[in-house]
Fold this protein.
Amino acid sequence: MTERQFTVDDLHRILVEGAGETEGGALGPDTIDTTFDELGYESIALLETGSRIEREFGVSLSDEDVMDSRTPRGLIEAVNTRLGTTSGAAV
């Protein structure tokens, strides 16, 4: 059985669906370690993103899990930990 992994593409899609594109630019390998603040995503957008991730991927994320993940890499790693994948931030 193949493990489902949460990727930067998944995060970008969910962020755009929930909050729209920001002036900070698209998420990708070159922005994975840029803070959400620098990318233009505020706390409400991140909490909405966390809710969407929970529904789509069937994981449980606390508000702290989402808010303490200051970068896309951090949030991807948090989600993948909940999914039981061990490969870290899938780019």
